[in-house]
Specification:
Radius of gyration: 24 Å
Number of helices: 18
CATH architecture of the largest domain: 3-Layer(aba) Sandwich
Bound molecules: 5-phosphoarabinonic acid
Strand order of the largest sheet: 1-12-11-7-10
Largest sheet: 5 strands, mixed
CATH superfamily of the largest domain: Glucose-6-phosphate isomerase like protein, domain 1
CATH class of the largest domain: Alpha Beta
Structural class: alpha/beta
Number of strands: 12
Distance between the termini: 56 Å
Number of domains: 3
Length: 457
């Protein structure tokens, strides 16, 4: 079970920049009401931990038998980040570089979530279309990046003369969008993204579960982990980790802590922090409240990696402005450890404190030392403790932050499930790329550019 240590957020421990227990007590009724409201409103993501995912395992049986070397996921944002995070957390950051037998025979998993020509081109050059399964994921079925990559990858498969039914899977809206249309016409295997589950909340739908199952992630354990946490998020405020995360972060946000740093002391968890970054940013960064007031709200999430960023960011965190709340991700069991040799440089005593210790001891000491220094300096910080990194705990992590996001949306009185700012960018791209129906927007962009003062070197 994930453990949460909120001590470093308390005013009683860190002084004026913390949250007082007294404040929490006086807001208990309100928070209990918000918890109840989210469960009653039942946004789509709250249903997912209770769903049976056997149908995914069943439907993927033939694809497993094809013995692919590589699985190539084409998707972006919520259609990519949960898969990347879980691959790295469960399989490890070096997974794609391991020989097949060390991958237990499972294919590699690639998620090129950008249209950088080098990033896409070099990857296709590296892979063999005869041995690659391409999974195209787009809820709307209209995102330019995914659509472009799909067209390129399809041509790549066609040129290799492979069967598209064998080498393609679509994951998209059950009815709408161009992928659904193509899939229906061509008999491509398709999985549905439930319409009431937004992209960034969709890792426990086929969006994450299909590619992850293909590489041997125990998707039932992932969903079970989310269920364990879902039950914890039904508890009253002071026993509810999601509610405490949401409350403390929003309380501190209102007191000027505009940034929320997720400081992962594990490279395998770095992309879990990236997943959180999207969730917190897109869900809470909003212009209007639910009743239409202009507020321009949102707390900026930041990802940091320990110990690496101790030598890059921590000076700022310790002595810079009091504008951050920090969450340390601490791992108790890395599944591997390395002893620092004892019988080396016996004549140099300066290094004796390291000799015979392990890298795990060192990283945990550094994590705790940094947490202590930051809280000693009066900066609010909490710890999320992973007894180990496995499907169960990653599932718990996903759910606790999804539920915390829903509650933070309540506190801010905004809609955490839409993303008008993202849609605006998507529409401008269509206009610039000459898509039919976007001529007026293209004209507006052109005249805006015409009015702009040019200041170039
Ligand atoms: O969370 C979101 O809604 C977005 O980040 C989307 O996931 C992203 O824009 C991709 O959209 P789609 O899955 O429709 O291609």
């Amino acid at each position: 079970m994930l453990k949460f240590d909120f001590s470093g957020l308390l005013k009683e421990n860190i002084g004026e920049h913390g949250v007082s227990l007294e404040n929490m007590k006086s807001d208990t009724d309100l928070m209990d009401r918000y918890i109840e409201e989210v469960w009653q409103e039942a946004p789509g993501f709250t249903r997912l931990p209770y769903e049976d995912v056997s149908y995914i395992e069943e439907a993927l049986k033939p694809f497993k038998e094809y013995n692919f070397d590589d699985v190539l996921v084409l998707g972006i944002g919520g259609s990519a980040l949960g898969t990347i995070a879980t691959r790295d957390a469960i399989k490890g950051v070096y997974y794609n570089g391991l020989p097949k037998d060390e991958r237990d025979g499972y294919p590699r998993l690639w998620v090129p979530d950008n249209v950088d020509p080098y990033y896409v081109g070099k990857l296709l050059h590296m892979l063999n279309p005869q041995k690659t399964l391409v999974i195209v994921i787009s809820k709307s079925g209209r995102t330019a990046e995914t659509a472009a990559e799909y067209l390129i990858a399809r041509k790549w498969l066609e040129d290799a003369g492979v069967s598209l039914k064998k080498h393609l899977i679509f994951i998209t809206d059950p009815e709408k969008g161009v992928l659904r249309k193509i899939g229906n016409a061509e008999g491509i295997t398709m999985f549905d993204i439930p319409p009431d589950v937004g992209g960034r909340f969709s890792v426990l739908t086929p969006v994450g579960l299909v590619p992850l199952y293909m590489v041997g992630v125990d998707i039932k354990a992932l969903v079970d982990g989310a269920k364990t946490m879902a039950e914890r998020t039904k508890k009253p405020f002071m026993e509810n980790p999601a509610a405490l995360i949401a409350y403390t972060h929003m309380y501190l946000f209102k007191k000027g802590k505009n940034m929320a740093v997720m400081f992962a002391y594990s490279n395998n968890l770095a992309n879990v922090a990236d997943w959180y970054r999207q969730l917190w940013a897109e869900s809470l960064g909003k212009r209007y409240t639910l009743d239409g007031r202009e507020v321009f709200t949102g707390q900026t999430p930041i990802k940091a990696i320990g110990t690496t960023d101790q030598h890059s960011q921590v000076q700022l965190y310790n002595e810079g402005p009091f504008d951050k709340v920090i969450t340390f991700l601490r791992v108790e069991d890395f599944g591997i450890d390395i002893q620092i040799p004892k019988d080396i440089h016996e004549d140099i005593t300066d290094l004796d404190y390291l000799k015979g210790k392990t890298l795990k001891e060192l990283i945990l000491a550094e994590q705790f030392a940094t947490y202590l220094a930051i809280t000693d300096n009066g900066r609010p910080a909490m710890q999320v403790i992973f007894p180990k990194i496995d499907e169960e705990h990653i599932g718990q992590f996903f759910f606790v932050y999804e539920f915390a996001t829903a509650l933070a949306g309540k506190i801010l009185n905004i809609n955490p499930y839409d993303q008008p700012g993202v849609e605006a960018g998507k529409n401008a791209t269509y206009a610039l790329m000459g898509r039919e129906g976007y001529e007026k927007l293209a004209q507006q962009i052109k005249s805006r550019l015409g009015e702009m003062k040019v200041f170039e070197l």
